[in-house]
Amino acid sequence: MFNKKVADLLNDQINKEFYSAYLYLDMNNYFEARGLDGFANWYKIQAMEERDHAMLFYQYLQNNDCPVTLGAIAKPDKEFKCDMDVLKAGLAHEEYVTSLIHDIYAAAYEVKDFRTMQFLDWFVKEQGEEETNARDMITKMELFGNDPKSLYMLNQELATRVYTAPSLVLD
Ligand code: MG
Description:
The chain is mostly helical. It contains five helices and no strands. Helix 2 packs parallel to helix 5. The protein starts with a helix and ends in a 12-residue tail after the last helix. The protein binds magnesium ion. Magnesium ion is lined by residues 17, 20, 50, 53, 97.
């Protein structure tokens, strides 16, 4: 059985990942309204990935006979004033999620829960990639966002992103 603190944090993370999916859907919604369908596509796929993350935590708890408690998912409450606002909120959110993953890892480490540490290794790596992607988006937007033609091309580039299931698979 898991240590109580580790179990609580893993349970909370299900909720945080579903909230992340909600937040990215809100960003998808923003870009749909803007008519930037490529950006909208990128954030929709991001939302699907977050849902997958939630399901991995869910499955991990069930696989280890740990009771799952599902809480209410918060309403995304960010007001986006411009495109860059969205991108920066995305990066800030990923940095926050990284801190949450690290907190669970630290709690597991403290009680020598090696199984949970190994499970979380994938997420530690994933968060590194998420932060890099979010920073790349900001850099590209800084370079090209103010020129309509370049923004159009960036939008086309982001339209090519396709959904792939997570490489971590739990039975
Ligand atoms: Mg996630």
